[in-house]
Amino acid sequence: MSNQVLLFAPVTDLKGVGTKTAADLASLGIYSIYDLLFYFPFRYDELQTLPLDQIMDGQKVMLKGIVATEPFVSRFGYKKSRLSFKLRIDHDVIMVNFFNQPWLKNQLEIGKEVAVYGKYNVARQTLSGFKFVAAKDNDSGMAPIYPVNKHVKQKKLVSLINLAIDDFLSEVVDIVPEKIRQKFKLMSDQEIIVKMHHPNNGIDAKLAKRSATFREFFIFQMQLALLTSRENENNQGEAKHYDLKEIAKLTKSLPFELSADQKEAVNEIYADMHSDQQMRRLLQGDVGSGKTVVAVYAIFAAITAGYQAALMVPTEILATQHFNKIDELLRPLGVRTVLLTGNTKTLERREIYKEITDGTINVVIGTHALIQKNVIFKKLGLVIIDEQHRFGVGQRQALINKGECPDILAMTATPIPRTLALTVYGEMKVSEIRHLPSGRKPIISAWKTSSQMDDVYARMKQQLAAGFQIYAVTPLISESETLDLKNAEELFEKLSHDFPDQKVVLLHGQMPGAQKDEIMAAFAAGEINILVTTSVIEVGVDVPNANMMIIYNADRFGLSQLHQLRGRIGRGQTQSYCMFIADPKTDSGKARMRIIAETTDGFKLAEEDLKMRGEGDLFGKAQSGLPEFRVGNVVNDYNTLAAAQKVAQKLVKKSNPDHQALKEILDYEQLKQNRI
Ligand code: ADP
Ligand code: MG
């Protein structure tokens, strides 16, 4: 009998795993044995094995054989070394050298069977080893490559995963119902695990990935289907009897008039709130189109009707910005708004919890700190989720559960095609802000190569002389935070040197939140002339006097993300400039730079981005408007996603999952998403 619950035990239940390793694994999002088993490689190195006489000079191959001589390390120069031994392959003996990996010696002994991957020199009968694999670990020659970071090395992870497989594979229970698996010809969960980590060949790996993708989408769609059904069961939400007289005061206090699109969105939202059906609405609008004000109207209406409201956003900077803006608008109307993030001090936090519960606080704005269990509302009537694709279903659910069938307003700056939206978010009505507020000048965009930096500097000098501020942005490459930082630091040095009489400041993602806030506040106050950043400023930041942006290595961003970044400027009445600096090598890279320089239509750019993603684009994940999955890809595997949705909806309608193993997984996934 298998017992799935054992799998949810912390990784420290594995032999030889202590708290240090557990902490390292946590940095990859791996907490339990289950997480380890389902932490899949993102690709495989195909290590080709060939008979010796078929190998060409300089070819990369994997050779399997038996260690024939005592491995010997010779050292030369500073930190340089060569590890050599002879390897017997059937009746031949070749030489193997590993440079600068002396520690490998400990894993070798005469008579041991090993596999070595490297580059073969035919004349010398010598293999320069890149990689050493104990033969048992890699019979197939498909070496799994996992996403790792500086805390956890590839090799260590492989051995931990193998350990987990050895001891716990038999506890894994299938969660996709048998019938469905047959219908779609899917592997069992145990088979998925074995084949994903140790495929025998490329076809194996492909089939396993197909099954793993379905499984992943199925879990997601079950969550979504349950979310929707739970809301529908009692979607007898309450009608919010808001006070139009009070709301007129808000309108009067605004420094501008709402655009026609904004008015229409507010009306649609008000109709939903006024009905006794629960509101489930998505507000789409390009960056800078003015979604925040619309949200403020929704919030204020809920408050005049006697309810509290919560606004959840993905980053701390954005939470702070929203808070400042919304508090400024609503405070004069007697509304109490607070900011709650991971950085809120314990004492203050306790006070906030108390006042949320007793109802003194009307509006809470924050990051996913909002879903902590201590946050208990007196009467939560409206939940707003900004950039909702950045949150997991479980996170959204957790916030929604804090009210009794509260109205839900999701906001996104990245429109996605309707069918895709249905598949990814479930049933929602859509309001759209199509036009930017009037009086805005379109941003002038240009693509410059690095040999045209003189043009860029000339424009910068002109803008700085006129008292305007500038963003200088370098790409965020999610695989390597350290590299991001290095890029940004180098750029900071360079601009500080090139603009000695300007105040140049660096802002990056690894700074403590309080420091980021401080820098943003100084920038907003005009005390900083050039702000050098990674893409931490990507969403929501609003400083109208900053009307120029330079984006370095622009070809490393996705189009949607470039558009989001650019949306930080063009917010005032003055002319804004955006310069994309890139030296793309490929035609598609050049085409992308031309598109971004020529079009300001977010929808068009999103579609172009989707096309690129179809071709396996790696960049700009966070800004695509789509949720990210570990194995599957929403665009490439759309059909699987849609099939999984159908299956899940049927299952939920029929029975609610009375399937214990599935229930446990769903609970576990929810728990995991809500980990802070
Ligand atoms: P979004 O969240 O959609 O990116 P914001 O809500 O931050 O956009 O609005 C961008 C800027 O436009 C803000 O400075 C806001 O005050 C301003 N704004 C919003 N609506 C209008 C309007 N109708 N007329 C003029 N300015 C507006
Ligand atoms: Mg916004």
Automatic annotation (TrEMBL):
UniProt keyword S-adenosyl-L-methionine present: no
Biological processes annotated in GO: DNA recombination; DNA repair
Q: Which UniProt keywords apply?
A: ATP-binding, DNA damage, DNA recombination, DNA repair, DNA-binding, Helicase, Hydrolase, Isomerase, Nucleotide-binding
GO MF terms listed in the record are: 3'-5' DNA helicase activity; ATP binding; ATP hydrolysis activity; DNA binding
- Helicase ATP-binding domain residues are 272-433
Instruction: State the InterPro entries in the record.
Output: ATP-dep_DNA_helicase_RecG, DEAD/DEAH_box_helicase_dom, Helicase_ATP-bd, Helicase_C-like, NA-bd_OB-fold, P-loop_NTPase, RecG/Mfd, RecG_dom3_C
- Is Acyltransferase tagged as a keyword? no
Give the family from UniProt.
Belongs to the helicase family. RecG subfamily.
Q: What does this protein do?
A: Plays a critical role in recombination and DNA repair. Helps process Holliday junction intermediates to mature products by catalyzing branch migration. Has replication fork regression activity, unwinds stalled or blocked replication forks to make a HJ that can be resolved. Has a DNA unwinding activity characteristic of a DNA helicase with 3'-5' polarity.
Name-wise, this protein is ATP-dependent DNA helicase RecG
Species this chain originates from: Lactobacillus kalixensis DSM 16043
